[in-house]
């Protein structure tokens, strides 16, 4: 019995561990592809990743469902696009560690919006999590502020990351309500594929295709699978079997992401960075502890 229980626990959290690992490498690969247009990265990632995600989700996908989704959900798709575009744009215009940690304030933003809508009341864990998250970002940015190095160039990157976080929160809230109402939402894979098609036309009109070298093609392929294709499917396996474990695992994403950037010598290790990582991660932990009932959303 003990062996079977242990095996059951492993099979419940292993998919989530793999998903977190894949997601955490995203910042590194996005930064390494910064010479490519944002829309080009999204076109390849979303077209390939969307199809893979649809396959694993085994959703009822068809051209009719796509048209229906665009007709009824164009507003939330536009917000989702802003989130995806803003996040990658941010990496091309500001230090990656700062961008990543700013983006991972989204759990705090989610709780603030839910409290504002009176769907739940803020408790001590919510307040602690929100304070820790935003103070962590303030500490990370403090050296630049003290040295007057807070440039407008970085400001556009910070804005992109903030829009990425806000858009992601809006998408999570909206699609969660759609799932509760059993209308509109088919699968995240379908939404990703629709955005990939839109980004193709956006690339043709506003930017131009840059021929990737061999390394960039390999990174685009990995990015497609690791960010859009498989992780959502793996994450939902752990989320359904063990929501508490899923919540605990999600705390590791920003930490691992920064670790990869430090190991790759993209981001220098500083005391401010270490303190910021700890504070943001503790903030996510506090919010996760408070909001176990919303684990289906925050996953």
What can you tell me about this protein's structure?
The chain is an all-alpha fold and 299 residues long. It has one domain. It is 81% helix and 0% strand. It contains 15 helices and no strands. The protein has helices at 2-24, 26-32, 38-57, 63-91, 96-103, 106-116, 124-146, 152-181, 188-206, 214-229, 231-241, 243-250, 252-263, 271-290, 295-298. α1 runs parallel beside α12 (243-250), α1 crosses α13 and α4 (63-91) crosses α9 (188-206). The longest helix is centred in the middle third of the chain and has 30 residues, at 152-181. It is globular and about 50 Å long. It starts with a helix and ends with a helix.
Task: Give a summary of the structure in a few sentences.
This protein is 81% helix and 0% strand. With 299 residues, the chain is mainly α. Pfam families: EamA.
Total strands: the figure is: 0
Total number of helical segments? 15
Number of domains: 1
Portion in strands: under 5%
Multimeric status of the protein: single chain
How large, in whole angstroms, is the Cα Rg?
19 Å
What's the layout of helices and strands?
Layout: H1 2-24, H2 26-32, H3 38-57, H4 63-91, H5 96-103, H6 106-116, H7 124-146, H8 152-181, H9 188-206, H10 214-229, H11 231-241, H12 243-250, H13 252-263, H14 271-290, H15 295-298
Helix pairs in contact: 1-11, 1-12, 1-13, 2-10, 3-9, 3-10, 4-8, 4-9, 5-8, 5-13, 6-7, 6-8, 7-14, 11-12, 13-14
Question: Which characteristics define this entry?
Answer:
single chain; mainly alpha; EmrE-like; 299 residues; 15 helices; transmembrane; transmembrane helix; disordered C terminus
């Amino acid at each position: 019995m003990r062996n079977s229980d242990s095996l059951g626990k492993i099979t419940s959290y292993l998919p989530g561990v793999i998903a977190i690992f894949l997601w955490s490498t995203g910042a590194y690969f996005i930064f390494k592809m910064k010479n490519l247009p944002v829309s080009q990265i999204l076109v390849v990632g979303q077209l390939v990743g969307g199809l893979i995600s649809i396959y694993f989700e085994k959703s009822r996908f068809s051209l009719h469902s796509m048209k229906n989704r665009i007709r009824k959900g164009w507003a939330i798709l536009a917000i989702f696009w802003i989130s995806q575009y803003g996040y990658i744009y941010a990496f091309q215009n500001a230090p990656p560690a700062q961008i990543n940690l700013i983006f991972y304030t989204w759990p705090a933003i989610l709780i603030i919006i839910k409290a504002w809508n009176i769907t739940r009341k803020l408790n001590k864990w919510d307040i602690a999590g929100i304070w820790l998250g935003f103070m962590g970002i303030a500490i990370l940015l403090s050296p630049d502020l003290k040295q007057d190095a807070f440039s407008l160039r970085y400001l556009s990157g910070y804005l992109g990351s903030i829009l990425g976080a806000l858009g992601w929160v809006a998408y999570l809230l909206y699609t969660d309500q759609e799932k509760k109402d059993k209308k509109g939402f088919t699968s995240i894979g379908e939404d990703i594929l629709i955005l990939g098609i839109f980004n193709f036309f956006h690339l043709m009109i506003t930017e131009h295709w840059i021929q990737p070298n061999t390394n960039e093609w390999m990174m685009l392929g990995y990015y497609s699978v690791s960010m859009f294709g498989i992780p959502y499917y793996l994450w939902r396996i752990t989320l359904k079997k063990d929501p508490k474990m899923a919540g605990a695992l999600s705390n590791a994403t920003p930490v691992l992401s920064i670790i990869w950037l430090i190991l790759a010598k993209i981001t220098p290790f500083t005391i401010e960075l270490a303190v910021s990582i700890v504070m943001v991660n503790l903030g996510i932990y506090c919010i996760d502890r408070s909001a176990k009932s919303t684990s289906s959303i925050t996953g």
